[in-house]
């Protein structure tokens, strides 16, 4: 059975304190791994797609990396506006169009 | 309007009511999705439509009935719901469902409360 597990469940950071979020997955075949950001009361906002091990993508203070078993979302020198829940999702080779989501990591960045 | 819009944003209904959720995408996409997001649980895929044809029904109870009249509009018809159906219902769209690695873009959701 395909599984997506995110850790930690919650993370509290001081402004400027860099950290990483983990998304580990067990799937039959990976088509793509997606990162989203979700603010309270809003829908998820797309951040990155990673397709193959070794791939990296960056956007402002965020950097996503992918290995054969997990993905990391690195937050460098976070600001309070980076506070959100970060979701990862996988699309497998036998589940076209279907995203399987992890439970998310809630990040709070304090000034 | 841009992106994916959903109406209403909030809905309170009794268990005997019938209501509908509406989703509209302004991105020119061919695939649309309904998800359910309950507290402390991962997003659950409910339905997938590709070119107005339902291609996935993820074991959803029949009290939820989707409708996709064209590639820009998606509805979720609700009847005789249960309190455990209270959740955030999210609509999403992507360029294509079947051959796609494409990212899905989400609407703001409808917060549903069933009394």
Account of the 3D structure:
- The complex is a heterodimer of chains A (111) and B (115).
- With 111 residues, chain A is mostly beta strands.
- Chain A has strands spanning 3-7, 10-14, 19-26, 30-38, 45-50, 56-59, 62-66, 70-75, 84-92, 100-101, 105-110.
- In chain A, strands 2, 4, 5, 9, 10 and 11 form a six-stranded mixed beta sheet that branches. Chain A has a five-stranded antiparallel beta sheet with strand order 1-3-8-7-6, with no helix packed on it.
- Chain B is mostly beta strands.
- In chain B, a hairpin with a 2-residue loop joins strand 5 (44-50) and strand 6.
- Chain B is globular and about 40 Å long.
- The model of chain B has no long low-confidence stretch (mean pLDDT 91).
- Classes of the chains: A mainly beta (111), B mainly beta (115).
- Chain A binds chain B through residues 4, 31-32, 34, 36, 41-46, 49, 51, 87, 89, 91, 96-104, and chain B through 4, 6, 31, 33, 40-43, 45, 48, 50, 55-56, 90, 92, 94, 96-101, 103-109, 111.
How would the blueprint of this fold be written?
The complex is a heterodimer of chains A (about 110) and B (about 120).
Chain A: E1 3-7, E2 10-14, E3 19-26, E4 30-38, E5 45-50, E6 56-59, E7 62-66, E8 70-75, E9 84-92, E10 100-101, E11 105-110
Parallel strand pairs in A: 2-11
Antiparallel strand pairs in A: 1-3, 3-8, 4-5, 4-9, 6-7, 7-8, 9-10, 9-11
Chain B: E1 4-7, E2 10-13, E3 18-25, E4 31-37, E5 44-50, E6 53-57, E7 64-70, E8 73-79, E9 87-94, E10 105-106, E11 110-114
Parallel strand pairs in B: 2-11
Antiparallel strand pairs in B: 1-3, 3-8, 4-5, 4-9, 5-6, 7-8, 9-10, 9-11
Tally of strands of chain B? 11
Q: Which segments of chain A are poorly predicted (pLDDT under 50) over 5 or more consecutive residues?
A: none
- Biggest interface, chains and residue tallies: A-B, 25 and 30 residues
* Radius of gyration computed on alpha carbons of chain A: 13 Å
Report the principal-axis shape of chain B.
globular
| Major sheet size, sense and barrel closure of chain A | 6 strands, mixed
The fraction of residues assigned to DSSP E strands of chain A is over 45%
- Please report the distance between the alpha carbons of the first and last residues of chain A: 41 Å
Mean pLDDT of chain A: 94
H-E string of chain B: EEEEEEEEEEE
Number of helices of chain A: 0
Helix content of chain B: under 10%
Give the tally of β-strands of chain A.
Answer: 11
Give the overall average pLDDT of chain B. Answer: 91
Give the quaternary arrangement of the chains.
heterodimer
Structural class of chain A: mainly beta
Helix content, binned percent of chain A: under 10%
């Amino acid at each position: 059975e395909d599984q997506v597990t995110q850790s930690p469940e919650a993370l509290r950071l001081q402004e400027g304190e860099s950290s990483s979020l983990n998304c580990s997955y067990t799937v039959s075949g990976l088509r793509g791994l997606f990162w989203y950001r979700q603010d309270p009361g809003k829908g998820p906002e797309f951040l990155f797609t990673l397709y193959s091990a070794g791939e990296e993508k960056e956007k402002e203070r965020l950097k996503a990396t992918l290995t054969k078993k997990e993905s990391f979302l690195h937050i460098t020198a976070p600001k309070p506006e980076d506070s959100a829940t970060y979701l990862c999702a996988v699309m497998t080779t036998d589940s076209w169009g279907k995203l399987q989501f992890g439970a998310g990591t809630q990040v709070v960045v304090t000034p | 309007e841009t992106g994916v819009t959903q109406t209403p944003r909030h809905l309170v209904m009794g268990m005997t009511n019938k209501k509908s959720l509406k989703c509209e995408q302004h991105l020119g996409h061919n695939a649309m999705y309904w998800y359910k997001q309950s507290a402390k649980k991962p997003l659950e895929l409910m339905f997938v439509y590709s070119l107005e044809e339902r291609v996935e029904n993820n074991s959803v109870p029949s009290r939820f009935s989707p409708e996709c009249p064209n590639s820009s509009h998606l509805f979720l018809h609700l009847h005789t719901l249960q309190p455990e159906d209270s959740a955030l219902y999210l609509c999403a769209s992507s360029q294509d469902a079947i051959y796609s690695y494409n990212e899905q873009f989400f609407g703001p959701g409808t917060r549903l409360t069933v009394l």
